[in-house]
């Protein structure tokens, strides 16, 4: 992702809190940003982080975003203490509902992955929110060809450089579901060529002992989402009707110990390229931020950082 500063701001008139993303123009592709803005302006869903406003100056673009404060998906799982298949099922159902909405509006996210799933607030039953529409695409005709996404989550047809459709999002949801139930990715190789080869063959397995206590229904759901051939893959509508997603077959057995241990081992934050607070600037202020608009914001806290990513980096060509 591109370098961006993120500010916690409050609107002076109402006191409402927002996240303000400041993006330097010289680091951006105007086309990509315009695409992201177009997509965000079109959508409004309970499980999608919303764009509230947009401004620009000579050097920066400013996106006033809905504030999401509940933290990242993996952190919440690790902090839970108890975690079951049913918890994973409810989480995936929310993601499916949001992505189904996107697909109904001819939008393909194209970069669904755990770090783009955030909790709305710190409440125990907080809803999950989809973020980062930088690679999303409005596709009325349904077929795309630009290779993009994150290795490990990207569908076989994208790696094979074939035309693809919204089915790529369903593959990514399958990969996310797999990780939510065992704590490690279905495809992992130090060598990128071997990694891509495994993905293109859909060469994954439900390894013992990590999958011994996971229901056959959960595995069936994953198999349907991670079908190698996109025309055989579940759509979001089909996925939402699956018994495991509806909640009829998801087990209540606690799988926290295994999943949390594997998440910490395979997705450790030490592997993320995150700037430490000392590298950024933390400011407490009570001044107005004026951006060529009549709306003014008070800057509450400013933290500058490079947007984190998982060990696998986005693939774009």
UniProtKB/TrEMBL annotation:
InterPro entries associated with the record: Kinase-like_dom_sf, Prot_kinase_dom, Ser/Thr_kinase_AS
A single MF term (Gene Ontology): ATP binding
The entry's keywords: ATP-binding, Kinase, Nucleotide-binding, Serine/threonine-protein kinase, Transferase
PROSITE patterns the UniProt entry points to: PROTEIN_KINASE_DOM, PROTEIN_KINASE_ST
Domain Protein kinase intervals: 1-245
Pfam families xref list: Pkinase (PF00069)
Protein name, entry field: Protein kinase domain-containing protein
